[in-house]
């Protein structure tokens, strides 16, 4: 009987201790882990002025100057697509559910989170203070998931992959390479002083002149006439209006493949665009040259920008077609 009483007391004591443990765990917020969190606290966004991205296709350094983001090469600052940087910061500050998977060094190696194997997003603010150093490993067991680890911590999480879109793309994917960016992008990059007046869309174009230095045979002018287009001085030529206007849109939407560090030595091709309000825009292209990265290419400049762009010969030919291209 004494043994049974001792056993009953022992079991009751264990039950009480277990109940106290569970109650303490539930009520003590320090002992609970909320699986929903953000990698970067949104309150820190005002401090962020540098983002370093490392991936398998190259590294990128983005810096903020006067609330505008640029791509830094170490010696030059090139404009970037502001919305793309905002998308990255939104993904970093978005609260989501991340599942704790492992804490061991062996797991870091197996899940691709070791130095040199992992992709990386390092966010800095102030005087270079690291606000976040996030490593991104291999894909998780479930499609669309990857493994994450904050540098200096042991915990490895898995969660929805929102970041390889940024880490595994070419550095050039950040560049704002449009010769004539939309008004909002132009304002962000160049400031209000570089804004073009309203009414500079395709429908406002009244005349375009295309000419090549030293080659008068390739020079021609297109002028709006009624609902169509004509070659001034050769009004009998019948032009294909949809083709002309498709080409005009390609001019206004023209986008390079990279930035060049210097202007071309010689200008060969020129496009001058006149708008109804008197505004003029120009495109100037250098001679064909060998580009170490892009093969045969041309350096191109636009009147709206102080930057020099690299265009492939194929893209150049789309901007500078022969006059016969517009004939019906």
Q: What is the overall pLDDT average?
A: 86
The CATH top-level class label of the largest domain: Mainly Beta
Instruction: State the total count of DSSP E strands.
Output: 20
List the domain count as a whole number. 2
Largest sheet: 9 strands, antiparallel
For the CA atoms, what is the radius of gyration?
30 Å
Strand content: 35-45%
What series of H and E elements makes up the topology?
HEEEEEHEEHEEEEHHEEEHEEEEEEH
Low-confidence stretches: 13-32, 192-198
Under the CATH scheme, the architecture of the largest domain is Sandwich
Helix content: 10-25%
Categorize the overall geometry. elongated
Question: Gap between N and C termini, in Å?
Answer: 111 Å
Count of helices?
Answer: 7
CATH topology assignment of the largest domain: Immunoglobulin-like
Kindly name the structural category: alpha+beta
Spatial strand arrangement across the major sheet: 5-4-3-2-8-9-10-11-7
Question: How would you sum up this structure, described in words?
Answer:
It is a single chain. The protein has 328 residues and is an alpha+beta fold. The protein is built from 7 helices and 20 strands. A 9-stranded antiparallel beta sheet has the order 5-4-3-2-8-9-10-11-7. Strands 12, 13, 14, 15, 16, 17, 18, 19 and 20 form a 9-stranded antiparallel beta sheet that branches. The radius of gyration is 30 Å and the shape is elongated.
């Amino acid at each position: 009987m004494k043994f049974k009483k001792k056993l009953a007391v022992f079991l009751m004591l264990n039950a009480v201790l277990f109940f106290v443990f569970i109650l303490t765990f539930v009520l003590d917020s320090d002992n609970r882990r909320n699986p929903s969190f953000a990698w970067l606290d949104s309150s820190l966004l005002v401090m962020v002025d540098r983002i370093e991205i490392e991936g398998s296709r190259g590294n990128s350094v983005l810096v903020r100057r006067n609330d505008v983001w640029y791509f830094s090469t170490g010696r030059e600052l090139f404009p970037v697509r502001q919305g793309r940087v905002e998308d990255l910061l939104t993904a970093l500050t978005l609260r989501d559910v991340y599942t704790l998977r492992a804490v061991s060094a062996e797991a870091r190696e197996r899940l691709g989170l070791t130095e040199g194997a992992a992709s990386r997003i390092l966010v800095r603010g102030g005087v270079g203070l690291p606000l976040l150093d996030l490593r991104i490993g291999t894909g998780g067991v479930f499609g669309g998931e990857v493994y994450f680890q904050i540098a200096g911590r042991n915990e490895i999480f898995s969660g929805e992959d929102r970041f390889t879109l940024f880490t595994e793309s070419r550095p050039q994917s950040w560049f704002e390479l449009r010769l004539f960016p939309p008004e909002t992008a132009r304002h962000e990059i160049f400031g209000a002083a570089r804004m073009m007046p309203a009414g500079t869309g395709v429908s406002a174009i009244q005349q375009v002149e295309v000419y090549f230095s030293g080659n008068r045979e390739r020079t021609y002018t297109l002028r709006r006439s009624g609902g169509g287009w004509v070659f001034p001085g050769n009004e009998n030529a019948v032009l294909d209006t949809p083709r002309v206007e498709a080409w005009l849109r390609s001019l206004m939407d023209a986008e390079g493949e990279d930035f060049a560090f210097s202007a071309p030595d010689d200008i060969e091709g020129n496009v001058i665009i006149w708008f109804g309000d008197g505004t003029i825009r120009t495109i100037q292209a250098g001679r064909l040259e060998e580009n170490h990265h892009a093969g045969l290419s041309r350096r191109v400049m636009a009147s709206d920008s102080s930057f020099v762009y690299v265009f492939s010969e194929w893209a150049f030919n789309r901007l500078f077609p022969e006059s016969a291209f517009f004939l019906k």
